[in-house]
Write the structure tokens for this entry.
Amino acid sequence: MGQVAVVAVPPSRAQSFTKRLREGDQIAHLITLIFAASILLMTVFLVYELWVHSAPSRAKFGLGFLFSQTWDPVAEKFGALPFIYGTVLTSVLALLISVPLGVGAAIFLSELAPPRISSVLTFLVELLAAVPSVIFGLLAIFTLVPLLRQYVEPFLKRTLGFLPLFQGPAYGVGYLAAGVILAIMTFPFIISISREALLAVPREQREAALAVGATKWESTWKVVVPFARLGIIGSVFLALARALGETMAVTMVIGNDTAMHASLLAPGYTIAALIANQFTEATGDVYPAALIELGLVLFFLTMILNASARLLILATTAKGSRTE
Amino acid sequence: MKKQWFWISLLAAAGTVAVSAETINAAGATFPAPIYQKWFEAYRKAHPDVQINYQSVGSGAGIQQLTQGTVDFGASDMPMTDDQISKITKFKVLHFPTVLGGVVPVYNIAGVTAELKFTGDTLAAIFLGKINKWNDAALKKDNPGVNLPNEDITVVHRSDGSGTSFVWSDYFSKVSPEWKSKVGASTSVNWPVGLGGKGNEGVAGLVKQTPSSIGYVELIYAAQNKMSYGLVRNAAGTFVKADFNTVSEAAAGAAKNMPDDFRVSITNAPGKNAYPISTFTWLLIPNKLDGAKKAAVTGFLKWMLSTGQQDTQAMFYSPLPKPVVAKEEKQIGSIQ
């Protein structure tokens, strides 16, 4: 609209040019501001909707919802603890596997690999990131789960069976299977973004390190990786968010047991998987409200985990700069 | 130019035809969805003026959408509770049974190919976690001559809410007082033991993969996938294998004292050959519909009770017993 008005009244050329520049900037500013504000608006709206529709459940259980271990639709008694536990456990397990692997692969692709190999592998990684999660789930059911049940879990029980983490029958499905499949799914994100961050490190940094006598690996590990730190950490956050919210692949391999178990081999449940499984058949007032409240819990859980990870990084980087 | 006008007028004509057809929206149960889709398609071919859209969103969601008035009628695998009915004030909900289904135990035990026999007690005890070995005395007694191994039983149940779980847990509630007090009957329950699989295919997949496991799937799923399944002892004391006839016989046994609103569970039904884990599935029809919709819906119901019933066996469902059909035809008259 503003642009049309400018064209309609033709002032002198120079004036119209500067005016157009100024107004153009203002319009661009306004439009992008609206786009940015829509992020905030959507988040607020989401929380508001979850809050309102979870009212019956919040009224009935209060804060006890977070600490109760019962999930009984018949008696209408609901608690979130087993699902919070399962969500956090599988996500942490996934990151424990995928972060070292992903960052290592990214270092190889950006720093060490011959360009041809690097471009082929990068293409494959981006392909992996686009595979739908249900495909990963199927893959897990047909290959990962039998592999875990027949070889990996019996091995873990034999060698580390004295730990409560590796006890109980080996079903194949369970926390461990979910963690591994989440690791496979988050792996491409970590590689792809970490690689971009490593490639963005200025060449001078590498050359300076090599000039003072560092080996190739020393310059990579002590100069390039710390320089790209923020990008790598960003990739871990994205991976964490994906792991926390992943539904389909997880529900296919986690065993969907509403009880809590210490063993990684035992079946469990995550928040997203439970909502996806039970929401369509949830009737009455409290039952669907409890599922919606779980959505709210997942939202805050993601926020808390993200914030604490950020704090952790802030703390460690501050310490690092002091010792330097 | 001429060609263009031809296409535009054709489009317009198609538009008017589509508009003049009466569109009915329905949503609900997934278990009968394959035959409903087939019925609605066949009915539209015979009566081009009626178009019924069915979304298989699940029984719970179907009841919810009917309550909120976003669909013209619903469908459910479990009858609506009094509480749910009382929430609808604009009209009264009429239950119309459409077809019957059964739920069967499936298992995977190395070296056992025989069809196992189960009593309700032992099945419930297995799913309670009280019987946890395949060579338990109770199982051995019902299956003489079968070499049951000394292996732990892995129980597999549905993880998603479903009418199948309702029938299964409803049956256990009738045969096991402990199940009734500890777990109860619903589309999802607090399973005491076991792994959860999503959908019939999820349960079947887990059972197939996990050694010494037992689960349950719909009869139509087992039949379509040629799975072998166990026999269950009925109220009359005979071990019965589920098929069209034994499931229909369960309905016939229940039909004698069918309540007027058709809200009845036919698990553990009397009758010498009645399969005990059987169920009706229902259409939930409002008793007040406006003119054109009333004609369309009642027309379909009449067709479903006569012509539609002939499609059932080809689709692996069991047809309704005659007395139930007659009773339902009477109920159509009460739609205003």
